[in-house]
Amino acid sequence: MTNEELxxxxxxxxxxxxxxxxxxxxxxxxxxxxxxxxxxxxxxxAKLEPNRIVTDSSYLTKDEVLQIVSKEIxxxxxxxxxxxxxxxxLNAPSHHFIKKITGYRVWSEVLKAVGIDTPYKNMxxxxxxxxxxxxxxxxx
Length: 140
Description:
By secondary structure, this protein is mainly alpha-helical. The chain has helices at residues 3-17, 29-36, 39-45, 62-76, 81-87, 95-102, 107-113, 125-139, and strands spanning 53-55, 58-60. α2 crosses α3. The N and C termini lie far apart (50 Å).
């Protein structure tokens, strides 16, 4: 089977499933991994969007990363980046990883994505943090 035939098969399966196939969905995934050097490389050659982003042993989507960040902020009780990095769970994503996966360049963009507005202009930082964490806990 040629590379082109393999690509055509995965594209047909994607149409049938209505989504990008996973390795488990595609019966010829072993061949694809061998020929293309990885599942995501294969999907890119087939013009398909990978379902999940891979880092080390973690398979996390942007939404999954943001859900974890939201839970960590609730647990920590602070929206400060330094508090997050210092007090996050061992398996929680680092700020560097969060930026890489989400594409957000600054911490305030991450906070906004999880539903926290940071109106530091109108109030002191401590008051803003307390208000936003309480809001997050009540609304999420």
